[in-house]
């Protein structure tokens, strides 16, 4: 594993004035882009000035960054542009997903049946399914359940905890259809790892609902905001529940005694460390095999 305080390296892609795409590596993307813009970077960008920093991707070390740079340079211009679009989407989505995983509760807003035309907001526990979609367990008698059964259109708002000034806090509002869903045994097990106290509610009249985002508004702080389309959300890389369980089975013997694994997804892992829930985000979205390698290296060193 890299040293704890070692700086990560980044692969980056720049569009040049002639429409070509320059690929490079650095430890500071914004500073390096400024050097290119000043005409003091690579010979290529001195002859073809940059017009836009398209995207970047974190790498664990210089060697990995160099390998990634070599692979990208073998791509066609069209393939480079598609890669840049995919990376830009991940740059935008990754902090939003991180926020959702770090937050235990959200505010669900539904269309009131008692007061037609008015929104009805209520606090609910928040757990994501294997596709990064909110999974809610709510009573059949609850007012918001009645609202959702009459009109599935809803929104879910989440705010970063621990900020005195909410304007400085990251926040996201997901807008979409929130409908009842049949939860498989594996999905119920995933939910209960995050919310073990909910086991008692499964013996009562509680129902699972899943919110499928159609659009999301993410605000990372003052001046950092944007919309995320539902199509991009659905295109996120992910694991099946069976793949998640396989990874957990392989990794659990390596965990320290005080650590309990809650969930694994393409963007990171959620753990309970001596009663404290925390999120460890991957440097980039991982495939199943990449996640296995990352997790083995992470915990085998403990």
Automatic annotation (TrEMBL):
Q: Which domain of life is it from?
A: Bacteria
InterPro entries assigned to the protein according to its UniProt record, in alphabetical order: CREG_beta-barrel, GIY-YIG_endonuc, GIY-YIG_endonuc_sf, Split_barrel_FMN-bd, UPF0213_domain
Bilayer-crossing regions: none
Q: Where is the GIY-YIG domain?
A: 7-82
Q: Which Gene3D superfamilies match?
A: Electron Transport, Fmn-binding Protein, Chain A (2.30.110.10), GIY-YIG endonuclease (3.40.1440.10)
The record ties this protein, via PROSITE patterns, to: GIY_YIG (PS50164)
Family affiliation: Belongs to the UPF0213 family.
Protein name per its UniProtKB record: GIY-YIG nuclease family protein
């Amino acid at each position: 594993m890299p040293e704890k305080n070692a700086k990560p390296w980044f692969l980056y892609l720049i569009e040049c004035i002639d429409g070509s795409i320059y690929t490079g590596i650095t430890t500071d993307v914004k500073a390096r882009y400024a050097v290119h813009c000043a005409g003091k970077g690579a010979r290529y960008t001195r002859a073809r000035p940059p017009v836009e920093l398209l995207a970047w991707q974190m790498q664990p070390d210089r060697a990995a960054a160099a390998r990634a740079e070599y692979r990208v340079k073998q791509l066609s211009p069209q393939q480079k542009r598609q890669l840049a679009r995919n990376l830009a989407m991940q740059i935008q989505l990754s902090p939003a997903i991180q926020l959702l995983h770090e937050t235990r509760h959200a505010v669900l807003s539904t269309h009131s049946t008692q007061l037609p035309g008015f929104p009805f907001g209520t606090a609910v526990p928040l757990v994501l399914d294997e596709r990064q979609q909110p999974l809610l367990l709510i009573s059949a008698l609850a007012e918001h359940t009645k609202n959702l059964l009459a009109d599935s259109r809803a929104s879910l708002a989440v705010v970063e905890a621990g900020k005195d000034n909410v304007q400085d806090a990251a926040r996201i509002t997901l807008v979409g259809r929130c409908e009842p869903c049949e939860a498989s045994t594996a999905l119920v097990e995933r939910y209960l790892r995050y919310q073990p106290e909910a086991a008692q509610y499964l013996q009562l009249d509680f129902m699972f609902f899943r919110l499928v985002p159609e659009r999301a508004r993410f605000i990372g702080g003052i001046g950092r905001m944007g919309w995320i389309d539902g199509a991009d959300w659905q295109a996120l890389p992910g694991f099946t529940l069976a793949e998640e369980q396989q990874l957990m089975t392989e990794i659990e013997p390596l965990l320290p005694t005080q650590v309990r694994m809650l969930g694994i997804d393409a963007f990171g892992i959620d753990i309970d460390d001596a009663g404290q829930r925390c999120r460890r985000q991957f440097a980039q979205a991982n495939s199943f095999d990449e996640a296995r390698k990352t997790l083995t290296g992470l915990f085998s060193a403990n």
